[in-house]
Structures are given as structure tokens and as C-alpha cells.
Design brief:
Elements lengths: L17 H7 L11 H10 L31 H23 L5 H24 L1
Helix pairs in contact: 2-3, 3-4
Length: 129
């Protein structure tokens, strides 16, 4: 999926104007070591209609097997990650209402569906193993 599909969770391959981020007071959430980009991008993407996309591939993603999200030694990583994602989405909605009290219903609905989905995955993750 592309940003045309409003999939903006991951931080890579996006460019933001510093002035825009300062003006809207968009920063990363304190205390999140994973899924911090889900909050940041949800707020930034939904705080403006001034977006653009180029079709040319200019970014190469490297899979670092020693990164925090790839290490097998992290106990209950996925369960924690799901809860971090839920927190990031709830906090993003709160921030969007702070920036603009007229948040579109479709955005609220989609975010709540995501929260419910990841909450269920976190609750029943052990059953899926």
C-alpha cells in the first residue's frame, strides 16, 4: 500500500517541513520505544491536506537483525508492541482533537477499529502461537 491509501504508520520514506511540525507542536511521544512513529505520522498526516507523493523509489530500507523490533530475545515483544500501538493511536486522536476539533468521522472510526483489532491481538496473542 502507498500513502495514497492513507497508510502512514511507519516513519521511513516521509519528509516533513520543520516549520509545520513546530507550528502544530508535533513531536514523538515520550516513553515509547516501539511504534513511536505510528503516533507521529498519524498526527502529522491528518493535520494537513498539503501532501504530495513522488512515484520514484528514493529510499532503501535495511533490515537490521539486531534492532529492537527484530531481536528474538525480547520477551513478549509483540504483545508489548500491540499495546504501544494502541497507546499511539489513542494519543494521536487526542492530539488531533487538540489541533482541530473537527476530526473526520472516518478517521475516528478507522482508528477505533485499529485499536480494537490490536487490543484483541494483544489479549489473544498467546493463543495464536
Amino acid at each position: 500500500m502507498s500513502c495514497k491509501d492513507n497508510v502512514v504508520t511507519w516513519f521511513h520514506a516521509k519528509i516533513y517541513k520543520v516549520q509545520f511540525l513546530k507550528e502544530k507542536q508535533i513531536r514523538f511521544l515520550d516513553g515509547l520505544r516501539t511504534d513511536e512513529d505510528a503516533y507521529f505520522n498519524a498526527v502529522a498526516w491528518n493535520s494537513t491536506n498539503n501532501r504530495g507523493m513522488i512515484e520514484e523509489v528514493l529510499y532503501i530500507w535495511r533490515n537490521n537483525k539486531n534492532s529492537i523490533t527484530r531481536k528474538e530475545s525480547i520477551k513478549d515483544y509483540f504483545s508489548n508492541s500491540y499495546m504501544n500501538y494502541i497507546r499511539s493511536q489513542v494519543e494521536a486522536l487526542k492530539k488531533l482533537f487538540e489541533i482541530n476539533s473537527e476530526v473526520p468521522n472516518i478517521l475516528i472510526t478507522n482508528t477505533l477499529i485499529n485499536v480494537y483489532y490490536y487490543y484483541m491481538k494483544a489479549r489473544f496473542y498467546k493463543l495464536d502461537e
